[in-house]
# Entry
Amino acid sequence: MNNLIIKNAEQVVTCSGFAGKQGREMSDLHVIENGTVIVTDGLISHILKAGETLPVNEQDYRVIDATGKALLPGFIDPHTHFIFGGYREEEFSWRMRGDSYMEIMERGGGIVKTTNATREATEEELMETGRQRLDAMMRLGITTVEGKSGYGLDKDTELKQLRVMHRLNETHPVDIVSTFMGAHAIPAEWQGREEDYIDFNINEMFPLVVKGELAEAVDIFCEKGVFAIAQSRRYLTAAREQGLKIKIHADEITPLRGAELAAELRCLSADHLLQASDEGIRAMAEKGVVATLLPLTAFSLREKYARAREMIDAGCIVALATDFNPGSSFTASVPLLFALACIYMKLTPEEAVTAFTINSAAALGREGITGSIDVGKQGDLVLLQFPSYKFLPYHVGMNIVDKVVKRGKIVCSLH
Ligand code: NIG
Ligand code: FE
# Structure
């Protein structure tokens, strides 16, 4: 049944208002106290204040009493690489010993190692691990997740990853938004022929992705020793010309002025941004490029966190994501994400909630259908065990989800 009434929530944290909140607007969560939310046929149909009478017949609905609990929009994770073969636990030990992420990549570890394992994995193996990972994310309150290809770096394996995400999207309650990331690394077969590899993506892969409707966006790892600014510009411009949305891994390790490029091209989002310049931050704010920040990656790599405070104060649309992947952030821990965002990146709890709901929806171009509790949007909700959203960063590292609702259906009940 996709008809649901969640009654008397201590807080209904609507996150309503602008789609893609900028700067100070991020602090306003539009909370309704003692509110009730009704989902009819999978869509939010009514939001009631305390004391308002129910405009529907309770018998047609499943009814949940949410006394003492906070209700939020389902969380949206707008940057992950969750379809992959194998693991890289040795690299974690090497990093703890002092090796850098890029050194490990240069000697054949990193993305290339996962690419080999993903090429070897069968589609069914990727389906199985993918499904398990989605289940874990759902238990943490995630109702929409972005997933990138980019561990194939050849035609067949890239398509295999995208097909797996397409199939999972059809069979799993969590919505998956797929991104093509052929330019994640330069595969061994194309070493020294980087421009040709970009051409291959533009001329062969983008048309296949568009024709098969296998991804909505493309992404590129713009980084010293991976893809340069000019190559990124060429790849992203061509993608946009073919009708795809564009995203960029920018200024993660080296300050290459990726944020400036994202603004120039009006990318939907620029992600990581640990080394973004003041100018880049200003340009992104001006052009409305979503700044997707990944504190779990900075934490795992022992890097300095992105300058979230400056970005918000400059008027950027800041979103948060887990970056779940087998290397730089082998975690989808929403509780830790909230804690790090507030404790180390100095977001307020309100800003962090906005960043992982309506702003992360905006980072995917999905702000019209999910990301806030507004009439007409999908009934994607998360009910907490505690009366306030403030417990999300405060109860450090603990999963405080009570129930997860996807299109009006309870898909997860932890109590
Ligand atoms: O977003 N930086 C590039 N890509 C991923 C890491 C992928 C990997 O290490 O396997 C990221 O951190
Ligand atoms: Fe990434």
Remarks:
- The chain has two domains: 4-73+371-413, 76-362.
